[in-house]
Amino acid sequence: MISERLAEILADAFWDILLPGLTVTIPLTAISFAIAMVIAVIVAVIQFAQVRVLRKLARFYIWVIRGTPLLVQLFVVFYGLPNVGILIEPFPAAVLVFSINEGAYAAETIRGALEAVPEGQMEAGQCVGMSYLRIMRRIVLPQALRIAFPALANSLIAMIKDTSLAANITVTEMFMATQRIVARTYEPLALYIEVGLIYLLFCTVLTWLQHMGEKRLNVYGRVRR
């Protein structure tokens, strides 16, 4: 049985944890993922275009980011860069790192989706006199993003959980808020379970939105055919 004291702590802590989730965790995830998608599309298109020098730079970026831990990247930007005179506030630093990190993974997802689009689509656009950029924007990319949507949605769900690492660079998101309550109340088990359930709630909503988005894209794809 949960004691009266513990029940009161959990009830009071719920809003103290949820509020940073709504005002910090969700915005951090949304902003970082939006920037990451821009990075990913650019990097994926560079690789797809087979421009040798740019492709090597893109592959180097992906190699470095995917080969180093996200936590190390956060520490390099927030704690390391001040040694060379570059000071970044905690929230912008987290956005920068999460964007660059997710951009590398999403770029590979989008590149694979681009390669899955039939080559005839590109050839058809060239036959009607469309430029390369216009073919990519109007024909290839929309199809590729539809193919990549499930994987990208999964990456978004993973990112909302990864934002807990931002507590290590003093971003007051849900996990840090919980740590502060634990330090005050000495109830780690119950409170960490509570914050885990709130993360689960957020991810459940995103999973539902993913299913809705996939249904709409499937309907749109059938209509287009």
How far do the termini sit from each other?
Answer: 58 Å
Please trace the helix and strand order, writing H or E for each element. HHHHHHHH
Q: What portion of residues is helical?
A: over 70%
Structural class, by secondary structure, is mainly alpha
Largest sheet: none
Instruction: Determine the CATH topology.
Output: MetI-like fold
What does this structure look like?
This protein is an all-alpha fold and 225 residues long. It has a single domain, classed as MetI-like fold (Orthogonal Bundle). The protein has eight helices and no strands. The protein has helices spanning 4-49, 52-66, 70-80, 90-116, 119-127, 132-162, 174-185, 188-224. It is flat.
What's the layout of helices and strands?
Blueprint: H1 4-49, H2 52-66, H3 70-80, H4 90-116, H5 119-127, H6 132-162, H7 174-185, H8 188-224
